[in-house]
Amino acid sequence: MLQSSPVPTNKETEVSTAAFDTLKFVQRLELAGIAREQAIALAEAQKESLSGLSDEQLATKSDIHDIRLKLVEHDGQFTLLKWMMGLLVAGVLSLVLKAFLP
User: Fold this and answer.
1) Residues with Cβ < 8 Å from 8, sequence gap 6 or more?
2) pTM (2 d.p.)
3) Integer CA distances (angstroms), 93 to 21, 30, 50, 81, 98, in order
4) pLDDT at 78 over 80
5) Alpha helix positions (H), the chain
6) What confidence score (pLDDT) does residue 83 get?
7) 44 in helix, strand or coil?
8) CA atoms of 82 and 87, how far apart (whole Å)
């Protein structure tokens, strides 16, 4: 009943998650003073909740790499927008100063 149970992996999406060791989990809970029956129930509940994760909910290394590339690409666009906004604010400020100062 108590055994290591790895979360299934999907080689197509390169998902590789860590195994959940229910025996070790139960032993730690017992050392903390929790009754064996409760520790086993907690281990089973934890195992079920971890197995409920779907591959769509987990980010792969390639997903993170793609996001980093997009952030680098957008960083240049944000830099350009910052300069454009700065020039726009400077232009408006110069017009306001020209209108109100002699």
Assistant:
1) 51
2) 0.39
3) 64, 69, 57, 18, 8
4) yes
5) 22-31, 36-51, 61-100
6) 92
7) helix
8) 9
Q: What angle do CA 96, 97, 98 make, to 5 degrees?
A: 90
The band of 11, judged by pLDDT with boundaries at 50, 70 and 90, is very low
- Decide: residue 43, CB within 10 A, 0-12 exposed, 13-18 middle, 19+ buried: buried
**Residue 92 identity (one-letter amino acid):** V
Angle at 55 between CA 53 and CA 56, to 5 degrees: 100
What's the residue count for the chain?
102
Assigned token pair, 92: 């408006």
Contact (CB, 8 A) for 36 and 27: no
